[in-house]
Design a protein that fits this description.
The mean pLDDT is 96. The protein has a single domain (4-150), classed as Aminopeptidase, CATH 3.40.630.30. The protein has a seven-stranded mixed beta sheet with strand order 2-3-4-5-6-1-7, with helices on both faces. By secondary structure, it is an alpha+beta fold. The protein is globular. It has helices at residues 15-23, 36-47, 49-58, 103-117, 131-138, and strands at residues 4-7, 27-30, 66-71, 74-81, 88-94, 122-125, 141-142.
Length: 157
Amino acid sequence: MPDMLVKLYELPALEPSMASMQEQGIVIRHAMPYEVDHVVSWVRDRWGDGWAGECAACFSLRPVSCFIAVQEGEVLGFGCYEATCRDFFGPTGVDESQRKRGIGRALLLACLHALRHMGYGYAIIGGAGPVDFYSKAVGATVIEGSSPGVYRDGLRR
C-alpha cells in the first residue's frame, strides 16, 4: 500500500463533520491517558498487534495523538497521528458495524486538523489502504515509489 500526501492548508472544514457526529450522538475527542488499556485492547481485538502498538505509542504524547469516536460509553473508531513517524496520519479504523456513518472521515479530519494546528503544511498518510477514500475526502495524492515505505522491515509473526 502506498503512502499519500495531503495539503493541510487545503483541508475541508472540520465543523460540518463534527456537527454530523453530534447529531448522531457520537463524540469525537482525544483519547485520555487513563484510557490506554481499553483503547489499545479495542484496536488489538479488531486490527492486531501492529496497529495496537502504533496506537499505544500515541498515548506517550500530550495531548494523546489518538482521537476516538465514542457513543454511549462505547468506542466506535479511532484515528492516530504522529504514531510511527512525525507528521504521519494512521493507523485508523472504525468498527465494521459502525461504518458508512461518516465516522472515519470525521476522525481523519480531526487528526489532520490537529497536524495543521501543530504547524505542518503537509501530512503523510502511511500505508494508505483505501486510496480512493483519502483522495475524495481530503485530496490526498499517492506518493510514487512509497510502498512499503517505513513499514518495509517489520517483524513477521
